Amino acid sequence: MKMSAAEILKEGELEKRSDSLLQFWKRKTCVLTADSLNIYPDTQKRSKAKELKLQSIKKVDCVERTGKFVYFTIVTTDDKEIDFRCSGEENCWNAVITMALIDFQNRKAIQDFKTRQDNESASPGQQERRMARAP
What we know:
The chain has 135 residues and is of the alpha+beta class. It has helices at residues 93-122, 124-133, and strands at residues 8-17, 25-33, 36-40, 50-53, 57-66, 69-76, 81-87. The radius of gyration is 20 Å and the shape is elongated. The protein starts with 7 loop residues before the first strand and ends with a helix.
């Protein structure tokens, strides 16, 4: 996926808890766009990114500040939990991801509403029946 600088909301490092038995924290390079969070295993972004689309994120949960880190969990629509942490000194990722998710959901809701309106106005028989029921 090619990204222009205008599409990037935030870029930098995050630590992701591994899914292995020992659950080590692994440093990842992340790029947040208006539609997805791209997670690269290396800082040069040479490897293929794991793309987490905002449409598959249910919420950002369990935000906790302890010492020098802020811990948070991304919950996906299939109830998978992905744990992250970032340094508390910098502008933390959890707020930026949450705002991007809200913006994405708002854009989707507006698009769905407009589609519904267009579909209703395209069928004049529907509108006449609705008007006949009106008091």
